[in-house]
Design goal:
CATH topology of the largest domain: TIM Barrel
CATH class of the largest domain: Alpha Beta
CATH architecture of the largest domain: Alpha-Beta Barrel
Oligomer: single chain
Strand content: 25-35%
């Protein structure tokens, strides 16, 4: 990736405007617009050249120019010039696979599904986007629009291409393309593979257009699965993690995915929005506490910040929303000296299962692992299994991480070098239950438990973490035997019988009956293993004993965690390094469910006298709170600095220099 200058406090200014809107840009005043942006401490605004409706908002003779945009008004050009006069960047937005104008003018360019339907909304629905086939002549049409934008506004600060996923199609162009490559359009995997190749090709072409006009301009393709970043980054200068917590992404999406993105060593930013819900929530305004929380999540992980808004078709901004943005960005600016250029201090890596899509289903392994590790205050990155293990002291392989012979060899080398590993579920086993990685502390092949629900009983050594009773395991696990030298920290207790139509007991699972020899958690040396999917169990059931069992396993193989605190489980802690200083971010905003699929932070609740102990590479000279620079007394012992934070008012930064 080429380095490009990015804003620290950005705005993504949507402007998807239907052709039936009659008064586009009527009240737009470039000086008033730029003054409002500057007053909100914003240093970059993504402005629209082309929206999902397929309309253009610049001085062009193209027939897709918005029909209600006055001929005298070059809206995009006026925005860029007004922002540049104030030293504010103005990257340009272009919609890619959503273009209603092109779809209506050329219905043959629309993605065709195998069931002979077009990809888009039903004919008599309430509207929605028709999806364009990027193997059709539409790509030439789009490339010509991009070339015109780059020519008119050279040198552009950057291009933000939106709606850029891998889209299968069986149009005549797609079928011909697959046939040329020896792929079968009748097979879904072949259609997916071709869609990936088409996406590679159009990203390569559009990125080359941008680089020819401005080699240092920003380039980003949005709506891509982040798991594709190892390949996609060749086409992009940076990564923008779109994550509107109240718009369907939830409050876990950004902190989970930023831990993956930041390991690639490229500029990255988080993107939320000021809306109560999702994009184009006209009249929707989220609480300022929620917006502050979302921006502070970005700061805590070294990300630049972006807040989304949508300008009214007449060209005006909602003043109360921008006043809130200004206050939040004012605080972000005061935090900037301790955040910009900061890098993760993580000593743990969460090794990801097989790559997923743009987002992952709720209640899965990923959600369970991230939520659990955040609650346990682990400092971790998320990596693919083929990445370098050596920067970390601890690897966590949750539930079903595929383990090749090469991965097994690298795990052996990692453990031999002093590293620790926790694996759960089917990780490290082949389809028949035999260990592919022989470092697992099991003997012989595993077999499925005959019980869909069982229990575990903790050993005496971990009862400070796990209460001494039989704890339910809500899903089926494996039966395994302990290898020589392995110690069981918990054993399986099986029920009287499997619940069925033949017999059942009470309302739910059958009660525990027999303590077995089957281990629920094994430890040998620096390797721990549970034959149950503990992370998926936590994601789907929120089982606190499963979290405690993981905590016991990590303590057994890796010792004390980098951070220890008495802050609530919901408090988020992130440790970053910057120019010899260690910056510990503590975030606490209570999030409540306010409707189906809508979690919201409304109030900022202050925590008092939060105890915090952090492992540091060397004894600090001083400790203080940022940005206030209030001194903190600290105790240095056994490689750890211990402080008491007098208050955490939503967000606090403890700096050790």
């Amino acid at each position: 990736m080429r380095r490009t200058r990015l804003g620290w406090r950005q705005i993504h200014l949507d402007f998807h405007t239907a052709p039936q809107i009659p008064d586009v840009g009527r009240d737009f005043d470039p000086d008033r617009f730029a003054a409002a942006v500057a007053a909100a401490h914003v240093d970059s605004v993504t402005c629209f050249a082309k929206c999902h409706h397929g309309h253009l908002y610049f001085d062009t003779d193209h027939p897709a120019r918005h029909p209600a945009l006055p001929r005298r008004l070059d809206l995009l050009g006026a925005q860029i010039r007004a922002l540049h006069r104030r030293g504010i960047r103005a990257p340009i937005y272009v919609s890619v696979q959503c273009d209603e104008f092109a779809a209506n003018a050329h219905p043959e360019w629309i993605v065709r599904n195998p069931d002979n339907t077009n990809q888009g909304p039903p004919p008599l629905g309430r509207g929605g986007w028709q999806i364009l086939d990027m193997s059709s002549p539409y790509l030439d049409y789009l490339a010509a629009q991009v070339a015109e934008v780059l020519e008119r506004y050279a040198p552009a600060d950057g291009l933000f291409f939106d709606m850029c996923w891998n889209q299968p199609s069986v149009s005549r162009w797609a079928k011909a393309g697959m046939a040329e490559r020896g792929l079968n359009p009748e097979e879904a995997p072949d259609r997916e593979r071709y869609a990936r190749e088409v996406a590679d090709a159009y990203m390569r072409r559009l990125a080359a257009l941008c680089r020819r006009r401005n080699p240092r301009g920003g380039i980003y393709f949005n709506s891509r699965p982040l798991a594709s970043l190892p390949r996609d980054r060749a086409h992009m200068t940076h990564v923008e993690i779109e994550a509107l917590p109240t718009g369907g992404w939830g409050y876990l999406y950004f902190p989970s995915n930023v831990r993956y993105v930041r390991t690639f060593g490229v500029p990255y930013l988080g993107m939320t929005a000021r809306f109560h819900k999702s994009w184009a929530d006209f009249g929707g305004l989220k609480p300022e506490a929620a917006l502050t929380y979302e921006v502070c999540q970005m700061l805590a992980h070294g990300a630049r910040c972006s807040i989304g808004d949508q300008m009214h078709p007449r060209g005006t901004l909602d003043r109360p929303a921008w006043a809130a943005i200004g206050r939040v960005y004012g605080y972000a600016g005061r935090c900037r000296p301790w955040c910009e250029g900061a890098v993760s201090a993580a000593d743990t890596a969460l090794v990801l299962p097989a790559a997923g899509g743009y987002s992952q289903a709720a209640g899965g392994v990923s959600e369970g692992a991230n939520r659990m590790l955040m609650q346990l205050k682990q400092q971790y990155d998320a990596i693919d299994a083929d990445r370098d293990f050596n920067p970390y002291r601890l690897l966590i392989l949750p539930d079903d991480v595929a383990c090749s012979a090469e991965t097994a060899r690298r795990l052996d080398a990692f453990v031999a070098g002093g590293g620790a590993v926790l694996a759960t579920g089917r990780t490290g086993l082949d389809a028949d239950g035999r260990p592919v990685w022989r470092g697992l502390p099991v003997a012989g092949a595993a077999s499925a438990s005959p019980f869909s629900v069982a229990y575990f009983r903790p050993a005496a050594s971990i009862r400070d973490l796990v209460p001494p009773m039989d704890h339910v395991l809500y899903e089926r696990g494996l039966r395994v035997r302990a290898a020589r030298g392995a110690k069981a920290l918990a054993r399986v207790v099986e029920p009287y019988f499997e619940r069925s139509w033949r017999h059942f007991c009470s309302h739910h699972q059958t009660p525990p009956a027999r303590l077995t020899r089957h281990p629920a958690l094994l430890v040998r040396g620096r390797v721990a293993y549970s034959p149950y999917p503990l992370f998926g169990l936590f994601g789907r059931h929120g089982s606190l004993p499963c979290r405690a069992l993981v905590q016991a396993a990590l303590r057994a193989v890796a010792g004390r965690t980098m951070v220890q605190t008495d802050a609530p489980a919901a408090a988020e802690i992130s440790v970053m390094r910057r120019r010899g200083a260690t910056v510990v971010h503590v975030l606490y905003w209570p999030v409540e469910s306010r409707g189906p699929g809508l979690d919201l932070a409304e109030d900022t609740v202050t925590l008092r006298d939060v105890r915090l102990s952090v492992a540091l590479p060397r004894a600090p000279r001083r400790a203080y709170l940022a940005p206030s620079r209030e001194a903190l007394a600290f105790d240095w012992r056994d490689g750890r600095a211990a402080v008491v934070l007098p208050r955490v008012c939503g967000h606090a930064m403890a700096v050790f220099e």
